[in-house]
């Protein structure tokens, strides 16, 4: 995910600066990038038309996310890159809680650096590292670094 594009360049550099990656770039699957204490996934598993996933596609992929996170027993913090990811993570947490679980109302809204903690996971919102956000300054290096450093704090506190 993100390998070989400008969003990835921005994200991997931030992961490297904050100690989650062994190098600041990723150009291909076998370029030596190693993530430590980090997992990158997508709410939608396919490349939708115009790279704009629909809520129906997100919901259809939810069972895979549930299965995947179930295999990662150490996950405590989810950094959501954008509002779409935030909503997907809220749905994931609800699905993991099971049928009949209490759903938060009003539903927590996405914002950059927004935080939400429940008994199992903490969510942190971050603007997506798209060119639209990074070129306009909506997301800067200090902003994404602060989110990743906060994620590290949450993870360390939960151990």
Write the layout of secondary structure elements.
Layout: H1 6-17, H2 55-71, E1 77-81, H3 83-97, E2 115-117, E3 122-126, H4 131-135, H5 141-157
Parallel strand pairs: 1-3
Antiparallel strand pairs: 2-3
Structure description:
It is a single chain. By secondary structure, the chain is mainly alpha-helical. The mean pLDDT is 89. The chain has a three-stranded mixed beta sheet. The chain has five helices and three strands. Helix 2 (55-71) packs across helix 3 (83-97). It has helices spanning 6-17, 55-71, 83-97, 131-135, 141-157; strands at residues 77-81, 115-117, 122-126. The protein is globular, with a radius of gyration of 15 Å. The longest helix is centred in the middle third of the chain and has 17 residues, at 55-71. The chain has a domain at 49-157: Uracil-DNA Glycosylase, subunit E (3-Layer(aba) Sandwich), CATH 3.40.470.10.
């Amino acid at each position: 995910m993100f390998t070989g594009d400008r969003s990835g360049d921005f994200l991997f550099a931030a992961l490297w600066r904050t100690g989650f990656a062994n190098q600041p770039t990723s150009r291909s699957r076998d370029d030596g990038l190693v993530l430590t204490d980090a997992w990158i996934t997508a709410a939608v598993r396919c490349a939708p038309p115009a790279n704009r996933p629909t809520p129906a596609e997100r919901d259809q992929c939810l069972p895979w996310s549930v299965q995947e996170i179930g295999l990662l027993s150490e996950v405590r913090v989810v950094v959501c890159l954008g509002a779409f990811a935030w909503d997907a993570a809220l749905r994931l947490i609800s699905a993991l809680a099971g049928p009949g679980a209490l759903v938060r109302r009003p539903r927590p809204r996405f914002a950059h650096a927004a935080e939400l903690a429940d008994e199992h996971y903490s969510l942190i919102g971050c603007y997506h590292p798209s060119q639209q956000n990074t070129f306009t300054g909506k997301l800067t290096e200090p902003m994404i670094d602060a989110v990743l450093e906060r994620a590290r704090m949450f993870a360390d506190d939960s151990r």
